[in-house]
Design a protein that fits this description.
The protein folds into three domains: 3-83, Orthogonal Bundle (Arc Repressor Mutant, subunit A), CATH 1.10.10; 91-162 and 268-298, D-Maltodextrin-Binding Protein, domain 2 (3-Layer(aba) Sandwich); 166-265, D-Maltodextrin-Binding Protein, domain 2, CATH 3.40.190. The chain contains ten helices and 13 strands. It has helices at residues 3-15, 18-24, 29-43, 59-83, 99-102, 106-116, 130-138, 202-213, 227-235, 280-298; strands at residues 48-50, 55-57, 91-97, 120-126, 144-148, 156-164, 166-171, 181-182, 191-194, 219-223, 241-244, 255-260, 267-274. The strands form four sheets. A five-stranded mixed β-sheet has the order 4-3-5-13-6, with helices on both faces. A four-stranded mixed β-sheet has the order 8-12-7-11. Helix 1 crosses helix 2 (18-24), helix 1 (3-15) crosses helix 4 and helix 2 packs across helix 3 (29-43). Residues 1-58 form the HTH lysR-type domain.
Length: 299
């Protein structure tokens, strides 16, 4: 089995079109087709179901896809290590991020890792909920991730970098949208849109807590998996929401943000990793993050 066979298989599996995959690899289509046939002959299985109209992964092809990707990733890691000088650190570090809290610092952190530790492959994993990172890090599925306090697991460490205020998001034609500031109690009769309760969202928890402190239980009429969808639903008039100030950059027609006259305590955005970390690459990224995020917080 040759690496070029795996490269051709992965490209074809992702494109599901021999012509597009061949162009992506700068190959002639017959050459790519021959590579796939050679791989199928060596494995003794059919990797694709082909017809004149479509190319579809077979069960065997679907089972091979992730292992093939892992093999090529490992080969790239070997190449990195072979070209590094003495004392350099090589490895793969997975970093989970969400849209709002990580938006301002993630690009700077990624650039700093590439510049200071070129032997480290930083794999960015997009996540819907900040709370997902905590569970994934504890389970070993991620190395580092963005989240919000509290983080109760004693086996994890945190690095605070931002404090996010709660704000109210309203449809632009809502009667309260004419006001510059709104009290939480004034939202008592409103329908709310927020994150699902089963996902452990710190933003949803803060919304419920603020409403209860104001003397009412929020009437949640719609749940959505991310801030962009929630704010689109608010703009459409489905309801209102309490959300973090870091989502103000989402400029959706029909949506306005207003400050609260009685804002609850800010939510603290943090980076999370395992306290007892054996990987030198993860420790190196954490050390770089400490400098980058501290500079951002000071600014």
């Amino acid at each position: 089995m040759e690496l070029r066979h795996l490269t051709g298989f992965i490209a074809t599996a992702e494109e599901l079109h021999f012509g597009r995959a061949a162009r992506r690899l700068h190959l002639a289509q017959p050459a790519l087709s021959q590579q796939i046939r050679q791989l199928e002959a060596e494995l003794g299985v059919e990797l694709f179901h082909r017809s004149t109209r479509s190319v579809v992964l077979s069960d065997a092809g679907a089972a091979l896809l992730e292992p093939a990707r892992k093999i090529l990733e490992d080969v790239e890691l070997l190449r990195r290590r072979a070209t590094l000088g003495a004392g350099e650190i090589a490895g793969r570090v997975t970093l989970g991020f969400t849209g709002a809290s990580s938006r301002g610092v993630l690009p700077e952190l990624a650039r700093a890792v590439r510049a200071e530790r070129p032997g480290i492959e930083l794999v960015l994993v997009g996540q819907t909920y900040a709370g997902t990172a905590v569970a994934d890090i504890a389970a070993g599925r991620l190395d580092i991730g963005f989240a919000r306090l509290p983080v109760a697991d004693p086996g994890l460490r945190t690095l605070a970098f931002a404090r996010e205020e709660l704000v109210v998001a309203l449809p632009s034609d809502h009667p309260l949208a004419e006001r510059e500031r709104i009290a939480v109690a004034e939202l008592a009769g409103e329908p709310f849109v927020t994150f699902p309760g089963v996902q452990g969202s710190s933003v949803r928890d803060a919304l419920v807590r603020a409403a209860l402190d104001a003397g009412f239980a929020p009437r949640i009429v719609q749940e959505a998996p991310d801030s962009y969808t929630i704010l689109s639903l608010v703009a459409a008039g489905v309801g209102v929401t309490l959300t973090v100030s870091s989502v103000r950059h989402i400029a959706t027609p029909g949506l306005v943000f207003r400050e609260l006259t009685d804002p609850p305590a800010p939510l603290e955005a943090v980076l999370v990793s395992r306290r007892e970390e054996r990987s030198a690459a993860v420790r190196a990224v954490w050390e770089i993050a400490g400098r980058v995020l501290s500079a951002g917080a000071d600014g």
